[in-house]
Amino acid sequence: TFYIKACFSPDGRFILGGSSNDTAYVWDVSRPAAPPIALRGHRGEVTCTAWRLDDFDSLLTGADDGTVRSWSLQRGKGAAAREERRAAAEIATEISMRSAEVEERRGAAQRAAEMDFGLEASVVEAVHDAVE
């Protein structure tokens, strides 16, 4: 297994990483010796990872299987994670709306980049663009 894409949570407490074994992992930075939480469900390399800026417990993973999965980190329950099964278009719409709201509060500096989540684009590409 090798790790493909990784990012810190917005509060810096966790690292989310995609991997070549169809699984994403979440590490608790404050507990480096603890094993990571495994997020299983993809059927391809997990190549995209992103945290939602307005909800530090929500994250997204995208994989070569063409799917995007939405996960909820349950920090009060031993930092477990559960998958939220929703349609990809619903996730893309939510990302678009929340990104626009976050940027509206922050100012217009990066609004154009954050709002580039058109439904014509594939959801995996939209998540990948958001991470970079």
TrEMBL record:
Keywords: Repeat, Ubl conjugation pathway, WD repeat
Protein name in UniProt: Uncharacterized protein
Ranges of the WD repeats in the UniProt entry: 8-30, 39-81
InterPro entries: WD-repeat_CDT2_adapter, WD40/YVTN_repeat-like_dom_sf, WD40_repeat_CS, WD40_repeat_dom_sf, WD40_rpt
Family: Belongs to the WD repeat cdt2 family.
Any single Pfam family the record assigns to this protein: WD40
Origin superkingdom: Eukaryota
SUPFAM superfamilies with a match to the protein in the record: WD40 repeat-like
Annotated Gene Ontology cellular component terms: nucleus
Pathway membership, UniProt: Protein modification; protein ubiquitination
GO terms of biological process kind: proteasome-mediated ubiquitin-dependent protein catabolic process
Species name: Phaeocystis antarctica
GO molecular function: protein-macromolecule adaptor activity
